[in-house]
């Protein structure tokens, strides 16, 4: 969908002003900001105040339940806040203003710099985790088959002292039906002639020149893919 | 009914596919597999679906002679972006990049077989023509249903994300599994492109039909409205096809007569003049030879028929149109003609005399 | 061999190597709003595969100090901040063309506020060459679209010319005075006193030591009386203009007007995600600078040989 804004003059590019680390792929960032449907606030300035309220409760209790799409937004802001605090430290004035704006209880500002920053110093993944909760369906909804997408989400900071939501998984999957059937089919396939022929004839010149090119192009594709992964963007 | 109203009835845009198409997606059931079984599925896929079948006899026979009445196969590409380039005059043009990714021919029908499949209304349009099915962008077969993946078993190919039917003449038939490259075309050829346009949503009359509207300051309550709709009750209300607000965009549109400026053979990218290719970046585009009579292919410059088959001679990485300035060349310099030199001297003499 | 029927129900997992062909259809491309080809969603990731995970912790900087100068020399090599206009293969092709053009001409390092002289081969000029000198007002664009404007006053008339960096008709770009200003945007010079934008066309280049830091010029410009062509104090246009001398009455008038505007966000400086979306992160910048440092090393040897050949000839 194309949206047109009334920009009288173009602005200079800001891609190079500051060095920001990438948010890890577990954190889902949408292309545009999501509106939090609250009636008492007005505009984009009020939206930041609501996000600040969620962040103070997160730092206080370390696990909160929210609307799922609201939690997606809050996740991004918390991670950015914590990385700024980690990189710039305690005495940097702009980070102090940020912490002062987002955190409404002043005890938690000390918690940020003294408890959370040393906890997450060696992390390479995200600092938060978003769980998707099933919706609260009524009896009529279940009978008629009316299912909506998950309305609620649970945001928590990693390394919290509360009991975990999901128990650690170690269940052997060998007894699953699909794996049992595939194990049986595997034996026939690996013993067959088709597989051994393909292994030997991967690089043979059998039929024609263009077939050779097609097979060699598959190797080039794997080589080129490694080159592209070095460039690693866009 | 006049031709104007007929075109309005044929407009079709829905969110569900045609009902005679095969169900594409597999059921959303995700069991957990062991690593050995994951490897087994990869090996099975690689043995049976990685190398397409080809018969060498057909390959040699398919090198046929091109005639001006024959119609050859097209390509499916994806729009990557827009990019400026300069001509040797110093003029700046914009070019769109279209990437041809993993195109293969999946099936071919003769003119007799195709005539049995055609709808009654289209029988004159496809009279005497054969058909080829092309696919683009291969994907893992586990994502798709068995019916859809079965279409590709004959050719020995992995299933594709996008398919089309292409009308061709009997000369240009190809065996299933032949790959199609970007060098199917050459720089200097003229080409038609069609695709789905950008999505605008529900739009008003000023944006959708370029109505004038009203004055923005000196009016109240009438600024972007259509005004009068009909001629009264006697006329039976507003006539069919009246321009009104509604959904705009996401329609099929063709761009006729587009020139190819450059081809990159390593990554199969076609550079086309102009930024007006329909759709956003990441959109599928369908490329064919033109119907415009003045820009059609001629016998003096016949194209690779039925497609480009790579031989022993390797092509260079970039192929350019003769008017285009290459970035590896030196800067452009203009040379004075004798007339201009004489004018400059006489102008200097006159300026001296006046002083 | 006959496989059991259960394979129909199996769904996707990691797609194998030979399917991840060089395609433009990576997960972060937007797949259309409404209609048949509805994608699952948009994930704003620059690294789409799990092999490219970050190994250095997030508290440490990725880019080493040697490559920090590249950020300022080659700002047009970064891609655009709009994800709609981005593509991996397009940038690779674009970078190759840009580096080939740089083999034929020296494009120096310059900033907004520095004085440049550009010679262009022009078919309509006398002698087919034209030269213009001026102060750099504005710089925009990414890749081959990058451009800059120069401003000067000639015969009591203000002239602004916009040049493309990678235009093949440009013969040379000379930097006469390298300096920075307090703003990134000097278009308010149109309504300033003319002394701030006049420069003689015969100016000689200034010598500068290599490795010295770039000086910042803390000038505050005096403006002509109202009316202006554009409200330069309007906050929607630019958050703050540091380079204008405050005029009595004008500042408060415009500031009050903009506060009541619906689109005004007084806490915009605290908006972290807006900052993230308008920047390009470190992980995406590193491979570009690595590639350019390799290019610089390879070309420096060629240039040394050319210098030696010149000295030998003399």
TrEMBL record, chain A:
It comes from the Eukaryota. GO terms for biological process: translation. GO terms for molecular function: structural constituent of ribosome. One of its GO terms (cellular component) is mitochondrial large ribosomal subunit. Keywords: Ribonucleoprotein, Ribosomal protein. Belongs to the bacterial ribosomal protein bL17 family. This is Large ribosomal subunit protein bL17m. It comes from Tetranychus urticae (Two-spotted spider mite).
From TrEMBL, chain B:
Residues 222-245 have a biased composition (Basic residues). Belongs to the universal ribosomal protein uL3 family. GO terms for biological process: translation. Keywords: Ribonucleoprotein, Ribosomal protein. This is Large ribosomal subunit protein uL3m. It comes from the Eukaryota. The keyword Chloroplast does not apply. Pfam families: Ribosomal_L3 (PF00297). The gene is 107365672. GO terms for molecular function: structural constituent of ribosome.
From TrEMBL, chain C:
GO terms for biological process: translation. SUPFAM superfamilies: Translation proteins SH3-like domain (SSF50104). InterPro entries: Ribosomal_bL19 (IPR001857), Ribosomal_bL19_sf (IPR038657), Translation_prot_SH3-like_sf (IPR008991). GO terms for cellular component: mitochondrial large ribosomal subunit. GO terms for molecular function: structural constituent of ribosome. Keywords: Mitochondrion, Ribonucleoprotein, Ribosomal protein, Transit peptide. Belongs to the bacterial ribosomal protein bL19 family. This is Large ribosomal subunit protein bL19m.
């Amino acid at each position: 969908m194309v949206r047109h804004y009334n920009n009288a003059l173009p602005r200079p590019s800001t891609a190079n002003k500051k060095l920001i680390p990438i948010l890890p792929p577990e954190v889902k960032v949408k292309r545009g900001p999501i509106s939090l449907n609250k009636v008492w606030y007005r505009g984009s300035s009020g939206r930041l105040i609501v996000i600040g309220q969620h962040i103070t409760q997160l730092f206080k209790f370390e696990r909160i339940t929210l609307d799922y799409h609201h939690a997606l937004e809050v996740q991004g802001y918390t991670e950015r806040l914590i990385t700024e605090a980690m990189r710039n430290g305690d005495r940097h004035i702009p980070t102090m203003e940020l912490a002062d704006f987002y955190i409404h209880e002043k005890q938690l500002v000390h918690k940020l710099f003294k408890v959370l920053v040393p906890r997450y110093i060696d992390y390479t993944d995200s600092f938060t985790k978003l769980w998707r909760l099933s919706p609260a369906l009524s009896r009529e909804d279940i009978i008629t088959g009316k299912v909506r997408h998950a309305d609620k989400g649970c945001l928590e900071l990693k390394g919290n002292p509360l009991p975990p939501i999901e128990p650690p998984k170690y269940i052997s999957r060998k007894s699953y039906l699909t794996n049992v059937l595939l194990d049986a089919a595997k034996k026939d396939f690996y013993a067959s002639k088709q597989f051994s022929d393909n292994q030997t004839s991967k690089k043979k010149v059998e039929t024609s020149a263009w077939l050779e090119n097609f097979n060699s192009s598959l190797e080039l594709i794997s080589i080129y893919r490694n080159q592209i992964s070095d460039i690693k963007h866009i | 009914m006049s031709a104007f109203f007929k075109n309005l009835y044929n407009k079709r845009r829905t969110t569900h596919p045609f009902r005679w198409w095969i169900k594409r997606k597999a059921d959303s059931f995700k069991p957990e597999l062991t690593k050995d079984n994951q490897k087994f599925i990869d090996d099975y896929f690689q043995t049976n679906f990685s190398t397409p079948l080809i018969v060498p006899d057909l390959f040699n026979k398919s090198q046929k002679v091109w005639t001006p009445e024959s119609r050859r196969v097209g390509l499916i590409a994806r729009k990557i972006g827009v990019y400026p380039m300069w001509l040797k005059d110093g003029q700046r043009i914009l070019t769109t990049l279209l990437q041809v990714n993993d195109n293969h021919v999946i099936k071919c029908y003769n003119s007799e077989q195709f005539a049995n499949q055609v709808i009654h209304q289209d029988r004159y349009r496809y009279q005497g023509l054969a058909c080829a099915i092309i696919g683009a962008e291969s994907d893992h077969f586990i994502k798709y249903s068995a019916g859809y993946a079965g279409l590709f078993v004959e050719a020995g190919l992995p299933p594709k994300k996008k398919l089309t039917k292409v009308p061709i003449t009997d000369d240009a038939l190809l065996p299933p599994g032949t790959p199609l490259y970007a060098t199917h075309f050459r720089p200097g050829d003229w080409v038609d492109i069609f695709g789905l346009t950008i999505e605008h949503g529900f739009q008003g009359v000023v944006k959708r039909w370029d109505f004038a509207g009203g004055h923005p300051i000196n009016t109240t309550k009438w600024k972007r409205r259509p005004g009068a709709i009909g001629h009264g009750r006697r006329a039976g209300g507003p006539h069919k096809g009246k321009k009104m607000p509604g959904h705009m965009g996401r329609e099929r549109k063709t761009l006729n007569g587009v020139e190819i400026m450059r081809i990159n053979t390593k990554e199969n990218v076609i550079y086309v003049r102009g930024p007006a290719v329909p759709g956003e970046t990441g959109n599928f585009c369908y490329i064919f030879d033109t119907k415009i009579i003045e820009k059609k292919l001629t016998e003096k410059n016949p194209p690779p028929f039925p497609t480009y088959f790579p031989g022993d001679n390797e092509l260079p990485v970039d192929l350019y149109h003769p008017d285009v300035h290459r970035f590896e060349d030196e800067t452009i310099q203009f040379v004075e003609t004798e007339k201009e030199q004489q004018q400059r001297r006489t102008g200097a003499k006159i300026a001296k005399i006046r002083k | 061999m006959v496989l059991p029927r259960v394979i129909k129900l199996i769904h996707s997992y990691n797609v194998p190597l030979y399917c991840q062909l060089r395609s433009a259809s990576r997960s972060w491309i937007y797949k259309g709003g409404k209609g048949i080809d509805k994608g699952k969603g948009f994930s704003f990731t620059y690294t789409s595969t799990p092999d490219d995970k970050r190994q250095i912790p997030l508290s440490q900087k990725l880019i080493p100090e040697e490559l920090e100068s590249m950020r300022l020399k080659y700002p047009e090599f970064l891609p655009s901040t709009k994800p709609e206009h981005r593509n991996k293969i397009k940038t690779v092709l674009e970078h190759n063309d840009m580096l080939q053009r740089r083999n034929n001409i020296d494009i120096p390092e310059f900033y907004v506020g520095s004085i440049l002289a550009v010679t262009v081969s022009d078919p309509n000029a006398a002698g087919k060459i034209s030269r213009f000198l001026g102060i750099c007002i504005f710089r925009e664009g990414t890749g081959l679209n990058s451009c800059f404007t120069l401003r000067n006053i000639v015969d009591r008339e203000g002239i602004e010319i916009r040049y493309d960096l990678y235009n093949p008709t440009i013969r040379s770009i000379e930097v006469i005075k390298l300096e920075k200003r307090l703003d990134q945007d000097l278009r308010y010079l149109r309504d300033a006193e003319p002394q701030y934008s006049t420069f003689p066309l015969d100016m000689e280049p200034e010598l500068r030591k290599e490795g010295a830091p770039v000086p910042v010029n803390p000038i505050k410009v005096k403006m002509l009386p109202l009316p202006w062509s554009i409200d330069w104090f309007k906050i929607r246009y630019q958050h703050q203009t540091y380079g204008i001398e405050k005029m009595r009455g004008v500042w408060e008038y415009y500031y009050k007007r903009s506060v009541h505007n619906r689109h005004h966000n007084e806490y915009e400086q605290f908006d972290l995600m807006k900052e993230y979306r308008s920047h390009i992160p470190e992980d995406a910048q590193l491979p570009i600078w690595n590639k350019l440092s390799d290019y610089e090393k390879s070309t420096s040897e060629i240039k040394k040989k050319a210098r030696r050949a010149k000295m030998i000839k003399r």
